[in-house]
Specification:
4 copies of one chain form a homotetramer.
Chain A (H helix, E strand, L loop, with lengths): L12 H24 L2 H7 L4 H8 L2 H21 L8 H18 L1 H12 L3 H5 L3 H5 L2 H14 L9 H17 L1 H7 L7 H19 L15
Chain D binds a DNA duplex through helix 4.
Chain lengths: ~230, ~230, ~230, ~230
DNA sequence: TATGAATGAGCCTTCATTCAT
DNA sequence: AATGAATGAAGGCTCATTCAT
């Protein structure tokens, strides 16, 4: 008996099971949506059993909320590593756009989960306590870069951070969220690396170009306007 | 009263019933997705009964395919009324962008249905015989405008029609497809008309600006920039 | 207008439709049983429509009863053409056995319909007014042959007509009613003509042999036995 | 009371539930056929619930196949207890015939299930992996008895085992499979014990008589017949 | 903590039958 | 006489969830 417990399952097994369930659930919800996902499938894929799921997450919807929170946390967590405040405004913007494009490319489950949540009119997102803090400083961060760029003449002034962010985000998101229908419509395969790279470059250019000051407008001309 | 009965719809009208079912189904699939939609709900909402649905559309999936086809047909049908070929390139582009933005705004079901179809990896779209012809000339149409603009100096040259169209389409699509999560994140309501109008204008500007030739590149300007 | 009605459908169309429905129903009930048969399928196969079926036969069960009656009528009708009373007893019996064997071979629907009716414990047969008269003289007919044979020394005496008829009928019926499972079990194909012929000959022999008087029993042989 | 609880069936017992479902299903399929049987009725009768049926047997057809296999297994299992090889040929045959007759009498579900399976052209039987082995030695067993009987002069020679077995089996099978229609036709009740006994004796006699060598053929007898 | 067994509600689908023309 | 449209009831099957061990 003595010392035997060390040989048996490690004590953090519970935490591990939770995690395995969450991962499997993320895949299942991303692949099938909330209504299409099967609790059985999640139990099987996570090598846990259904009772555990209910133990840890209450019910299917609770599990879905947990998946949603984790999905947002991963995304914003990565975004925060960009350290945009430390960069030159143009460089910061380029990095932000690229991050958005690349994240959508690398994380199809992010797209799927968000699409599904929008189908449900963000009902679960509103229940997710951990999400709002993640975005608390987002507008400010973007706004600060835009202002710095405006101040040093790199950007036009008067650009609204939220509107700009939405436009910026849309470019990578849509390409991937709609890649199956678009591929069918254009009779090509958007998943091909070359196709994606070309689009990505164009998207970056498009966003940055949008920030460039108008010729002879933002570059003060004598006494000011009016 | 007299002669009035001829005007009222006959109790038995196959075409009308088909149509009522299709309309109700479009709403239900848009609101709940394929898996979440209930055949019962569609029967009730269409004032038909379940048996009729199976009579006319085979099964739930067949009905979904029909909805998908009708949804695409409406969209491309409207798009074709723009008569872009007859317009000045810049004006044509502005109209195309505006159409895309406004259609997404006016037709939330278009967004939902497409999102759902992408969840299913366009499986049903590939079965929909009537869809490919709708897009047969899309790339050519865009390409022709871009070329005309390139020829008269209004646009940069070398822009790929498909990439450009995807970028263009993404701006309105994403705003609406993700309006619920974005509204939650930014603690605002993207459905407000003013918010939408402001975004819309910026999106138009962004796309058109992207087409404008580079200073000193397409139109050489003395010394050049360093 | 004049004389035109001759060109249109013949007046006996109704009778023809009834008949087409009955034939199609016989095939459907034989192939699928009462529960498995589909009114739709019968309507389609008879090139009539469902309303006609209900017009002529009341409902599915009424149609089934009609099929049952027609099936028995055909069988006994053919049997009556054998004119057994006019034949030598041995020849009459041979002919009766052969008829039973061959009818089962030629009319699989007879087997199927009867099997199905037995599944229903002859519930519909009891409702079928036209059937009892068909069998009114069956026992007497068999009994008469047996008696004639007994009298002229060709058959043993004391054979019960009903028991004998059942045994006789079983040989052809079972071979065909169970030909699919038997074919699977014996890994052969009972539908092959040669296989059937060989069985048929043996069955005839078996029945006739059964009628032959015992040696030294029915034909007293000197002083008694042993 | 003490220790008694170990003996009572546990509330959760998969094997028992499986068995209860199978038994109830056998009764239902025998009474109504595959198409007429109701999964609901089986669930109710087995004191299980529908979900369990699908858990254990996949679907209605899977359950039906299981019933079919169990039905054949019971029959052949009993048959194998006859130990025919150890008996005198005549006695062995008598026992085999009696067994067949009595089994059909005692197991109406055997008849019904087989009839139904033949309606489906043995489609499910072919799927039933466990059935072919049950019959692997059937022909050989019968053949061996016939040969032994031929060798010691008790039987005619040249009798084909399969044909003989089919004829033998038909006698009991048909009487019971068609007892409802036959009872109606002959206006008697074949279920009455006396009626059955009398038939049974005659059937045994018929089969055994068929095996007896011909007079003056197998055992040459002076002048011969003309 | 972990798990196989069990369940009731509900979903998609089908069917026999009737209505309106 | 004939037909396409319509319907309510029910059947097979699935799912999220809970029970008993």
């Amino acid at each position: 008996m003595l010392g035997n417990w060390m040989v048996t399952q490690p004590r953090r097994n519970a935490e591990l099971t939770r995690r395995r369930i969450l991962d499997a659930a993320t895949r299942e919800f991303a692949a099938k949506g909330l209504a299409g996902a099967r609790v059985d499938a999640i139990a099987r894929a996570s090598r846990a059993n259904k009772r555990m799921i209910y133990q840890y997450y209450g019910n299917k919807e609770g599990l879905y909320v947990a998946v949603l929170e984790a999905t947002y946390a991963r995304f914003r967590g990565r975004e925060r590593t960009l350290r945009l405040a430390e960069l030159d405004p143009v460089e910061a913007m380029r990095r932000l756009v690229l991050f958005n494009l690349d994240y959508c490319h690398a994380h199809p489950e992010f797209i799927s989960i968000l699409n599904n949540e929008n189908l449900h009119r963000a009902r679960h997102l509103k229940r997710a306590k951990s999400v709002p803090p993640l975005h608390a400083t987002l507008t400010e961060t973007i706004g600060a870069i835009l202002e710095r760029g405006g101040a040093n003449g790199a950007f036009r002034s008067g650009i609204d951070p939220m509107r700009f962010y939405i436009a910026l985000a849309s470019l990578g998101y849509f390409y991937h969220s709609n890649r199956h229908t678009l591929s069918a419509i254009f009779r090509t395969d958007l998943a091909r690396t070359a196709t994606w790279r070309a689009y990505r470059d164009e998207a970056v250019a498009m966003v940055l170009r949008h920030l460039v000051p108008e010729r002879g407008v933002d570059r003060p001309r004598g006494r000011g306007i009016k």
